[in-house]
TrEMBL record:
This protein's name: Major facilitator superfamily (MFS) profile domain-containing protein
Keyword ATP-binding in record: no
Species name: Pleurotus ostreatus
GO CC annotation: membrane
Example of a GO MF term: transmembrane transporter activity
Annotated transmembrane regions: 40-58, 78-97, 109-127, 133-155, 167-188, 200-221, 242-265, 277-297, 309-327, 333-359, 371-391
Length: 422
């Protein structure tokens, strides 16, 4: 396929992209096997480990939110800025990290990101929890920047090794965020509530992160033939790709609400009188439910196209947020975290294949991920603090529930209209 022709994609081709996904030309050489082989599977496993220690650790922020808020070190809204800043940099750093991946600097980016991430996590253990700026800089900024250099390339590089099963491979990598969201909330709650305490609890988690990052760095590699294939990605062409920009803006608004339960479900459970032994496991249960939710949609997306799967997933997520109005007992909390974990995990899995499907060459995938995640980063930055401000000191849960549910629902309608229009 002529690369110059593909860059000027026709309306009909855009329609086919939205319905089934774009069949990216992926170079295959005798030394590199596509859709299998040791390098592909090792990179997949390394990507899972990267997602586990980055997005997975961020998914455990609800533990910190609960501790910081109930210790009255800061208001719920101010504490939320720490977690939302983490998410902001996790996504925003995808822009330079995606560009570096396209230039062939995966290993160097992973090394720098790993050093920043581990150093910042140890700094969290040294920060005084009653000194806001220390926690904000180490946990919000430091961890966020390090995670951003690691997470987006870990997902995007799968496009170098997988073609027919690309959405499935990306979905498997994203399951790492659920694995981390299971392991770290349980680990941190246990350590913080024991004689180990906060400081050594954080350090223990940092040593676990260090070990997993070493393995991930050794396992992951890019495909050198992709770096030189096709024309260099032109940012202007990507920014004028209407379906891509519409979907990216939709994700920006969706992130105002999609992370609300990840920040507040443990606090919600505690303040509704749920047994602490269940409340402290709520985040872990939600992330455990996300495991099948992050794999099965990828399989369906490979068959039916990611855009055809993401719209109903968004509708269910919005409905579940509004269902919190009727949740007050332990059974309701458990049911909510199970279903929300599965369907929110599905959304987080599906947007990456959507962005990859709109690329015209594998060397574009990294920068498309970067642009899309950069836009969504601003949504994650303001979403949780808005929830915290709406919640207020009197903990009026109805306001953040309406805000979060509406943010998701209105973009369900946008994705449906986008598909119907084409």
């Amino acid at each position: 396929m002529d690369t110059k022709t593909t860059l000027q994609i026709t309306l009909q081709e855009q329609v086919e992209v939205l319905e089934k996904g774009f069949d990216l030309p992926l170079p295959e050489t005798p030394s590199h096997r596509v859709d299998g082989g040791a390098r592909a599977w090792c990179t997949l496993l390394g990507g899972v480990l990267m997602a586990t220690v980055t997005f997975g650790y961020v998914n455990a922020f609800g533990v910190y939110q609960d501790i910081y808020t109930r210790s009255q070190a800061a208001t719920a809204s101010n504490v939320s800025w720490i977690g939302s800043t983490q998410l902001f940099f996790l996504f925003a750093m995808g822009l330079p990290a995606g560009k570096l991946l396209g230039m062939g600097y995966l290993r160097q980016t992973n090394l720098v990101g790993s050093l920043i991430y581990v150093f910042s996590l140890f700094m969290v253990s040294l920060a005084h929890t009653d000194t806001y700026y220390q926690v904000y800089l180490s946990q919000g900024v430091g961890l966020g920047v390090g995670a951003g250099l690691l997470y987006v390339p870990a997902v995007a590089v799968q496009a170098h090794h997988w073609k027919r099963r690309r959405a499935f491979a990306m979905g498997v990598v994203v399951t790492g965020s659920s694995l981390g969201g299971i392991i770290f909330p349980i680990m941190l709650n246990r350590l913080f509530q024991s004689s180990v305490g906060f400081e050594w609890g954080v350090r223990a988690s940092a040593f676990v992160v260090l070990g997993l990052l070493i393995m991930a760095n050794l396992l992951m590699s890019d495909n050198p033939s992709v770096k030189g294939g096709g024309e260099k990605p032109v940012l202007k062409n990507i920014l004028t790709d209407i379906p891509f920009m519409l979907s990216s803006f939709g994700v920006f608004v969706i992130t105002w609400g999609i992370f609300f339960p990840y920040f507040y479900v443990q606090l919600f459970a505690v303040l509704h009188g749920v047994d602490p032994s269940i409340a402290f496991y709520s985040l872990a249960i939600m992330n455990a439910a996300g495991l099948p939710g992050r794999v099965l949609p990828g399989i369906l997306a490979d068959r039916f196209g990611p855009f055809n799967i993401i719209a109903p997933v968004l509708l269910v997520n919005a409905a579940l947020i509004f269902a919190l109005f009727g949740v007050s007992a332990e059974g309701g909390i458990v049911a909510f975290v199970v279903f929300y974990g599965a369907f929110s995990g599905a959304f987080m899995t599906l947007w990456a294949p959507c962005a990859a499907a709109l690329a015209v060459h594998p060397n574009e995938v990294g920068i498309r991920f970067g642009v899309g995640y950069f836009m969504s980063a601003f949504g994650t930055l303001i979403g949780a603090p808005i929830d915290g401000a709406l919640l207020g000191k009197s903990f009026l849960w109805s306001k953040p529930i309406i805000f979060s549910g509406a943010s998701i629902f209105q973009n369900y309608e946008a994705f449906v209209r986008l598909n119907v229009a084409h």
